[in-house]
Amino acid sequence: MRLTGDGGGLAPSALRVVRGADRIARLLLGLVHGKGRTHFLTRLGLEETDIGYETVNANAGPAVVMVAAGRPIVFLQPTVAGGLVQEVFVITNPEKMAGLMSRESAPLRP
Questions:
Q1: What value, to the nearest 5°, has the Cα angle with vertex 100 and ends 33 and 26?
Q2: Nearest Cα to 63, choosing from 73, 53, 49?
Q3: Using an 8 Å Cβ cutoff, are 96 and 11 in contact?
């Protein structure tokens, strides 16, 4: 299993591919709990706030959008094969997530 991040140099992201389920789980949990969460939000220019989650269908598959202060901050999409997650793509690049803000449905909320 591996995780590939894309911050586009505009937002915090994994700079290298992260390998192994344990490492990936620790990284993702660190984004939403404790000091890691505070640091992540600060790097995004946000004060301490609730982080919400919304499941979406993107690129013909399931994905999760993490939302803070009414805007998407993280897009996660797993690649599944044989019933197991093989790879997780994580996008924090605000330019690539701009389309999520222009959805015709209700705005994203925490």
A1: 25
A2: 53
A3: no
